[in-house]
Amino acid sequence: MKKILFASTALVASAGFAAAEISFSGEAGMGFIYDDVSGDWSPDYYTTLSVSMTGETDGGLGFGADFDITTANGASLVDQTTVYIEGGFGKFSVGNVGSAVDAKLGLSDIGYSGLGTDNVAEALVDAADMGNVMYDGTFGDFGVAMSYDMQGMENFSIAATYNMGDYNFGIGYDDWGNIAAGSAFHVKAGANIADFSLNALYSRADDADITSYGITAGYTMGAVGVTAAYSEVDVAGVSADAYGIGVKYDLGGGASVNAGVGEVGGVTVADLGIIMVF
After folding, report:
1. d(C-alpha 11, C-alpha 108), whole Å
2. 52, 57, 88, 133: which could form a disulfide with 61 (CB 3.0–4.6 Å)?
3. How do residues 254-270 score in pLDDT, each as one tens digit?
4. Sign of the alpha-carbon dihedral angle for 82, 44, 244, 119
């Protein structure tokens, strides 16, 4: 998102502060979503104001907090609240951090609303997407993240990533703690070469006999971007899949027209809308 800095909210170096500032960014969307169960197009709209507060101690230790204020179709929510410290050691966060695997190994949405194609591929990722403490570190081309839920669920998540030029790789592990018995293992690989992109995710939970996987492929030509996606989840031999194609046209200035059509679990879905980034 574009960062819009308000000078009136900046705290310039003074006694007790090496540097501190508050910045804002945002996103909004309006459009229409269709599914063939209802057989109707439904209006959709949302706004998100993201607030980022950052500072640095006299000794060079970074600190900050982030949160989102979101309204969606009439409902309001303050979400994604995290408070952190960071430095050469990495970043340590407390709050609504989610899981390390979800933060590092997820697949992208398509169309205006996402259509839900990535949710099928990420069934095992989403199952453990909770945590209130996280460590995230980057060391050259390598990255590692670890998260833990200390408020009852006790699930532990770890992910490691490696970037090699146009290619990226990642592995992850979720211990489900008190969510359910068992654990899940994840592998992701991707590439961005010229105007083409390709990303694939595979997840397996042996104890629950669940396998999920997905792949997305994209091509950008000037202001037009096209992305195709396929995913499947198998639970003890019973499977469901999802597929679709999304189109994005960049209007410039942070606005784009997005549309998609697909099938998720046997239900035809489609969307059309404008996304505005501020």
Report:
1. 36
2. 57
3. 999 999 999 998 999 99
4. positive
